[in-house]
Amino acid sequence: MAKHELLEQIYTIVAQIPEGRVTTYGRIARMTEGATPRQVGSAMRHLPAGHELPWHRVINAGRRITEHGGAARQREKLRAEGIVFGANGRVDAQLLWP
Question: Is 0.90 topped by the overall pTM?
């Protein structure tokens, strides 16, 4: 599958994540036709300018925010949607989508 087709699949899936829920790079990868979790992470890092995708709703398999340049902003955006982080920095498994 061509790279741009995988990106389209990833972006289509991310666009469906409802407010107040999160999913993981791996879960998104499994919904595509061959993307890896690493490719999903790369797609989130290289979103086109002016996009409306809820990139902040994608977290790592440990149900934590991966440390990166936008991690503080991601945490703020999730908290604004009612996502609560436990003392261990993890999101409750019940908030995972789908």
Answer: yes
